[in-house]
Write a structure and sequence with these properties.
With 219 residues, the chain is of the alpha/beta class. The chain has a seven-stranded mixed β-barrel. Strands 1-2 form a two-stranded antiparallel sheet. Strands 5-7 form a two-stranded parallel sheet. It is globular and about 65 Å long. The chain contains five helices and eleven strands. Belongs to the Cyclase 1 superfamily. It comes from Araneus ventricosus. Pfam families: Cyclase (PF04199).
Length: 219
């Protein structure tokens, strides 16, 4: 806190200092985070920060297995259910993990910060490769700790696959369970940090009154 009270000009002022890692909380992993030739936060095209949300729901799998992954079949199933392509979307994982945020042991799968014991869901490397080779997505976001599942947090294959191809990542995304699987528009608003490998990020989803989650019942 810099000031909280009466100051210059006999006015009341409230002002703070701010300092944080760019890779904590809800944040963006810019491609430069794991790629020496990747785009930094301030270099990302603005039209890639606004786009349709493609919510891939693996909640049921994650309840049974904390190491659950989004597979190629899950991606194809989303396209089949919605009748839309994943091209030019921002893909979001819905695993239910966001509800564990306030419990470190549940969220990380370990009572201490030890990635060798971490357990949480993520995107399968094979699915990440499929997206790069077969679709043109803008970004991928996770409602868990990382883009990769917990047991692969020491090698980060999904980070390397996506970010090397200038697909940005979003981690610790909140309230994904409130977004329909199709029909929402995402507005991704990272702090514009010059040369930044990442940034604290506000994400807003807007969608029409019709909720497309009812399509799930047609599987």
């Amino acid at each position: 806190m810099m000031l909280n009270g009466t100051g210059m000009g006999d006015m009341w002022w409230l002002a703070e200092d701010y300092s944080a890692s760019v890779h904590l909380g809800t944040h963006m992993d810019a491609p430069a985070h794991t790629s020496p030739t990747g785009l930094t936060v301030d270099q990302l095209p603005v039209d890639h920060l606004i786009g349709p949300a493609a919510v891939i729901d693996i909640t049921a799998k994650a309840e049974l297995d904390p190491d659950a992954e989004i597979t190629v079949d899950d991606l194809l199933n989303w396209e089949s259910i919605t009748g839309h392509t994943l091209n030019e979307t921002i893909v979001l994982m819905k695993s239910g993990w966001g509800k564990k945020w306030n419990n470190q042991t549940a969220y990380l799968g370990s009572p201490d910060i030890d990635i060798s014991n971490a357990k949480f869901p993520g995107l399968a490397p094979e699915a990440a490769t499929w997206l790069i080779e077969n679709r043109n997505i803008y970004g991928y976001g996770s409602d868990a700790v990382h883009l990769d599942k917990g047991s692969k947090s020491d090698t980060f294959p999904v980070h390397r696959i996506l970010l090397t191809h200038n697909v940005f990542g979003l981690e610790n995304v909140a309230n994904v369970d409130e977004i329909p699987i199709y029909g929402a528009t995402l507005y991704v608003m990272p702090m514009k940090i010059g040369g930044g490998s990442g940034a604290p990020t506000r994400i807003v989803a807007t969608y029409p009154e019709v909720i497309y989650d009812t399509l799930l019942s047609r599987k």
